[in-house]
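Subgroup meeting minutes
Present: P.N., E.W., G.H.
Scribe: E.W.

1. P.N. recapped why we're keeping a running log of single-chain structure predictions: easier to compare across weeks, and new members can see raw inputs and outputs side by side.
2. G.H. added today's entry (435 aa).
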Amino acid sequence: MSENENTGGAAPAKRNPMPLIVLGVLVIAGVCFGIYRYVAGLGHAVTDDAYVNGNLVRLTPQVSGTVVAINADETQFVKQGQLLVQLDPRDNDVALAQAKANLGQTVREVAQSFANEKRDAATVSAQQVQYTQATQDLERDRGLVAVHGVSAEALQHDEHTQASARAALEQAQATLAATRAAIAGTTPQSHPRVLQAEASLRSAWLGASRTKVLAPVSGYVVRRAVQLGQQVAPGTEMLAIVPVDSMWIDANFKENQLRGLRIGQPADVEADMYGSHVAYHGKVLGLAAGTGSALAVLPAQNASGNWIKIVQRLPVRIGLDPKELAEHPLFLGLSTTVNVDAHDQNGAALSQQPAWQVALNTDAYAAQDQGVEDEIRGIVSSNLNQPEAAPASGDAPKGASLTPPIAPRSVPPSPAARARDIGQQPSAAGEVAGK
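Output recorded in log:
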């Protein structure tokens, strides 16, 4: 037996097949997972370029003034109608007092105009009597001149007296016409000057009320830019409030993901703040009519220089369930991941009807003019020396009369017409002279 046969080589060691099996399983699992994600993603639009958005209410004063008190700061919750900032009210209080005094003075002047109407009418009547008497005297003396009953000098004196009486009558009639023109169709309460003074009082009343800056909505203060002693004017931002109960998601989808998106489609939202164990369920509310770059402050100028095509993104608004939002509040700017189920294609990509309630309103300022109508009625009544009559319900209509209107007086005939009438009738003196 040869040496090689006697020593024979050792049998080669068998390779362990387990790594190959594990590798094969992993490859198969990866392929299956990729196929599943591809098939499952055919009817979904997913993006992590999505952020929480909401209403940012910027609080500005309605009147100018100096800040003397600040009652809220950042991170604090404020309620609608709560006093947040107090402005120095003294200047506005002085303006209000001046408006009250002006209304009282105007009411007295207008009441005097109505009294002057009676005085001027009485003056016209008195001047009419004097003119009639002067005309009769002149006609009588003209008949006596022929029989030398009166002198020519006396007749001339009668003519001058009649002319003077006619001029005085015309002046009195003009004064009465001017007085009536100033008050025609009105009462002391509905006169334009009184209404203008009332409007000035309302404006001053609102100015005094608006020195108290109230919260228009309930929410959290996210920014305070006002300081004590600062002089502010309308338009100066003092506070910013965010109502956290009305948040939504602005998901920026790529333009090649928008083909299947429709209004009303369901969407799942995950916020990075809470992680995957908190899921929000919402729906598509609408698609913006322009991309982010087109609506930017400085839009891209693709017609100049070298051009590189960039995939554009379109903001899509996702509404959230209010109950889920109350349980897990979201804040402005938080990052989220949005998954829209686009299988249902019954909705529209664009709609002329709003998909959600967009009307926003507040009644925080509704009470700013409370009490001004009672104040006006009191001032008007006290300056007219009348008892204040409060209406049965609500405020009295603007311009309502508290006294019956003055009946218009008939204007006496003109002097020329009166003279013609008198001249056509023979006087008693003329009849005596003729006999």
